[in-house]
Amino acid sequence: MRIVLEGLRGEESVAELCRREGISESVYYRWSKEFLEAGHPWELEQTISGFVAFHNNKRYHESLDNMTPADVFYGRVQEVKKEREETKQKTLEQRRQYNRQTTLNDLSLGWQTLS
């Protein structure tokens, strides 16, 4: 809400504001639209609460080593990193198996063509 209000004040351009805050202009304009369309205080409160929940629980922050603030606050950093590493290793192994199988299939087709 603070960012939208600053933008509505017009003291600096939206581009400068977004650059300073580290958000894209499309995000600013979406927030601005939601803010202006909210109309009723409880709708505004719901919109802000939804954003805060997303920001703290779903959005990865580069400055937090691509963790959510909730992961850091609740001490889940090592657990999340371990899960990510396991997923990465599993994915790499699946790729290796796929590539081996594709290579073997290609080689067998090549031998059949030569025969």
Descriptive notes:
- By secondary structure, the chain is mostly helical.
- The chain has six helices and no strands.
- Helix 1 crosses helix 3.
- The longest helix is centred in the last third of the chain and has 38 residues.
- The chain is elongated.
- It starts with a helix and ends with a helix.
Which descriptors would you attach to this protein?
115 residues, mainly alpha, 2 domains, 6 helices
SSE inventory with pairings:
Elements: H1 2-9, H2 14-21, H3 25-38, H4 41-57, H5 69-73, H6 77-114
The SSE order reads: HHHHHH
Distance between the termini: 72 Å
User: Sheet with the most strands?
Assistant: none
Per DSSP E runs of 2 or more residues, the count of β-strands stands at: 0
Number of domains: 2
The average pLDDT score comes to 87
Helical element count?
Answer: 6
Strand content: under 5%
Low-pLDDT sequence parts: none
DSSP helix fraction: over 70%
* Overall morphology: elongated
What is the gyration radius calculated from CA atoms?
24 Å
What class, by secondary structure content?
mainly alpha
Brief overview:
The protein is an all-alpha fold and 115 residues long. The protein has six helices and no strands.
